[in-house]
Amino acid sequence: MNDELHEEIRAAVGAILKGRSARGGFDAALWKDLSDTGFHLLGVPEEVGGSGGGLRDLAVVVDLVAFHASAAPVAESAFLAGWLLAQAGVAVPGGLVVASLDEVEAHRRGGSLRLSGRAAVPWARHADHIVVLARDGDEVSVAVVPVGELEKAENLAGEPRDIAVFDDVEALTAAPVGVDVDDLRLRGALARSVQLAGAARAVLKSARQYVAEREQFGRPLARFQAVQQHLAALAAEVTAMRISADAALLAVEAHHRPEFAVAAAKATTSAGAHVVATIGHQLHGALGYSAEHHLGAATTRLWSWREEFGNEAHWQDRLAAAVVAEGSWWSTVAGGAR
Amino acid sequence: MTATIDLAAHRPGDSELRLRDEVRQFLDDQRAAGAFRPRSDAWMSAADPAFSRRLGARGWLGMTLPTRYGGHDRSPLERFAVVEELLAAGAPVAAHWIADRQMAPSVLRNGTEEQRRRYLPGIARGECFFAIGMSEPDAGSDLAAVRTRAREADGGWEITGTKLWTTGAHFAHAIVLLARTDGAPGDRHNGLSQFVVDLPHPAVHVRPITTIDGEHHFNEVVLDHAVVPAGALLGERGAGWRQVVAELAHERSGPERFLSTAPLLETWSSELRLTDPVAAREVGRLTARAWTLRQLSLAVAAALAAGRSPEVAAALVKDLGSRFEGDVVETVRRLAGIEPRPGADGLAGLLADAIPHTPAFTLRGGTNEILRSVVARGLGVR
């Protein structure tokens, strides 16, 4: 809850990220800058080798990386892999470490844990280590494995969305953990909500500048009421996305109905992505449709992230189930006893 | 003004959660006793002075007023919790709504000591109801075009003009008017003042305006050389526009801007089983939207409580929220497949209440087009 600290993080990370937007790939130089300053492991406890700080400190970094459309996997690294490691008390290994989004079968042989199966591991091709939830019967562990065989794929934004293939791979370290793959995916949905809100803010910022500068029919686009109405609708949606991500972070931090809040936030931010991308492109005209323009770096991410960790339909169904279970729509929305 | 509207999510405190439960219990009891039937848009159309007095007796009106004026020294966020529960339940709150929401803070801020003592305790007891005379035949969205004129006369004021769309003037104990005291209509925002006129008044004629649903909630109020005492001036002479604008953030951002049709959604979803996947998904969609809207509305309330005036954010909440209210009606109507029947029990009656009200959602309190132009100006492009 330290706003001043957040402003300091915002300023420092913003200075590192400024101008470093990318269409896909991995910005190794940027990652080095983030690593040198420790921002790549913010929100991960110092006991496991992280930089310390809370969830919302880390969210500031995740938001800014999304806002600047930088090719740096802070969400997959600190937000997901770092969280898993902290849950199990396993030290953060060196280099770039990312999380497997799927649980993998495991068995013990001669004192070591060996993993077999396929798992989605975003950014794996650029990583040194993968953190995996490994299941051996009823026991779930957090395991660290080196990056091995991969099937490469990308999302619409060109971000690596690789599949790791484990064929009797020995874990470097492993420790039992009390969370499961549903918890991990909820955490992922929270990360993507923050990222969607960040990318949406970038679209608004760009649109606002563009309509003020671009002239047609002898006046700036901003002088046209039709354009003003579009811009206001865009600002409203972007603000709604931001506040839903913020509120979900607060709910998770306070352990106050975190599943419901994250579901509502991901449903909101995923649905908002369409509104934001549509109005954003409409306001930028043909220029924003060029690969050279920065707008596409934000909108292709919106179109990708809205699907990842469950799109709005997935989370809407979960929210409906919560309403039925609670027996009252309003007390589901507002919380409190009935 | 930064690239986004500057708001921070609010985490409710224990007292807000406790109050919420108290109000829910009270409303359950009232419903069980047959004191009210949930209605959509009840804050606009369901006036029940006895119910208002019961809320006053529980300390749930004039909550944020100081105790010396009969209030309860509660925080705006505690009031928010109470108001939200009343709206979600579709309780009959229309009688006191304007007095509690707008006139209590306005009289406290702008009124003289005499005006405060005259009106505030009654508002907090649920015994003093207000109407607001803003719109006129030639001044709708363009409020600065008001022609109602107040002239100094015999140590008081003489007011002449016509107000339209004045909610609840037929039962209100007083009306607050925006009138021109100085300058000419061309002076726009300058020279306007606010007055409190006690009702009934021999030279103030209140005539009903019947809406498309056949109901009477609005009025035409004609002031025919109505003489009022000097003490009727509210706030500063000539500062009426500034005073009105300061009220707008309260008027536009509250939970009534997204919860007007909540009783309809509550009733429909309570009959829902997950057997209909289409309906379930729509409930989920509206649930996410409502949750987000209340985070926005709460954030504005928190900003107001912190002494800021988030006028742009409030406009934005009303734009999103009022569109959501219509979305609820359309979604329930489409999926329920029940013909609306005025006066009927259950969904058929709730739909009959809600459907003819939908045009009003995006008109009242400033049309959504005007609100968006307020947002555009806030973004620095107008």
TrEMBL record, chain A:
Its cofactor is FAD. SUPFAM superfamilies: Acyl-CoA dehydrogenase C-terminal domain-like, Acyl-CoA dehydrogenase NM domain-like. PANTHER family: ACYL-COA DEHYDROGENASE (PTHR43884), ACYL-COA DEHYDROGENASE FADE28 (PTHR43884:SF20). It comes from Lentzea fradiae. Residues 21-88 form the Acyl-CoA dehydrogenase/oxidase N-terminal domain. Keywords: FAD, Flavoprotein, Oxidoreductase. Belongs to the acyl-CoA dehydrogenase family. Gene3D superfamilies: Acyl-CoA dehydrogenase/oxidase, N-terminal domain, Butyryl-CoA Dehydrogenase, subunit A, domain 3. GO terms for molecular function: acyl-CoA dehydrogenase activity; flavin adenine dinucleotide binding. The keyword Cytoplasm does not apply. This is Acyl-CoA dehydrogenase. Pfam families: Acyl-CoA_dh_1, Acyl-CoA_dh_N. Residues 190-300 form the Acyl-CoA dehydrogenase/oxidase C-terminal domain.
UniProtKB/TrEMBL annotation, chain B:
Residues 16-127 form the Acyl-CoA dehydrogenase/oxidase N-terminal domain. GO terms for molecular function: acyl-CoA dehydrogenase activity; flavin adenine dinucleotide binding. Residues 276-379 form the Acyl-CoA dehydrogenase/oxidase C-terminal domain. Belongs to the acyl-CoA dehydrogenase family. This is Acyl-CoA dehydrogenase. Pfam families: Acyl-CoA_dh_1, Acyl-CoA_dh_M, Acyl-CoA_dh_N. Its cofactor is FAD. Residues 131-221 form the Acyl-CoA oxidase/dehydrogenase middle domain. Keywords: FAD, Flavoprotein, Oxidoreductase. It comes from Lentzea fradiae. The keyword Transcription does not apply.
